[in-house]
Amino acid sequence: MTTRKAVVLLSGGLDSETCLAIAGSEGFELYALTVRYGQRHSTEIESAREIAAQSGVAEHRIIEIDLRQFGGSALTSDIPVPHDRNPDEMTSGIPITYVPARNTVFLTYALAWAEVLGAFDIFIGVNAVDYSGYPDCRPEYIAAFETMANLATKHVIESDQRLRIHTPLIHLTKARIIAEGTRLGVDYSLSSTCYSPAPDGTACGHCDACLLRLKGFEEAGLVDPVKYQARE
Prior knowledge:
Elements: E1 5-9, H1 14-25, E2 29-36, H2 43-55, E3 59-64, H3 87-90, H4 102-117, E4 121-123, H5 139-152, H6 154-157, E5 164-166, H7 174-183, H8 208-219
Helix pairs in contact: 1-7, 7-8
């Protein structure tokens, strides 16, 4: 039997690293796609490069787009990244770290590559439990995109197969994600989650992403292996 190919969106963060490991554990031939979209730091890009190199992917592509042209997010403009928010603040409304249409853009690029590869599987590490309220991480959004993808691509129309968007983390808490990744042998020291790391890549420990990550490791009974800036 021919091994099925899967395109995996790999940001370099904890969730995408776990998603890549899950796709590999399911026997897919892995094609990792990383997007440099104009984010304010390149730490996660370097993390994605290291993760892909150590995960035995068939191919890793890093593509360049520039969402800074539109701004509208603390990750693509000079808007300050929120720090030290409590759980209630994180779940009340869509935060300024949401990048307009980012997952739609990412999935569209993944879909294009999947069509060229003849792949019918795309993995994305979105999560709708321990997350910051992004609308493009919800199950109904993923279902809608999958429906569109099956209407829009030649390789689906000309075959008897359907394309599937896999979201293995979407209903898991951060602690369960970390536990599953640990079971699969994921090296989380390679990942970068922070929204505002230091120039050397050290995580701030104060942004929403860091706080959710630290909480997840604590609830999983594990120690986060990445370095954090000294807390005052």
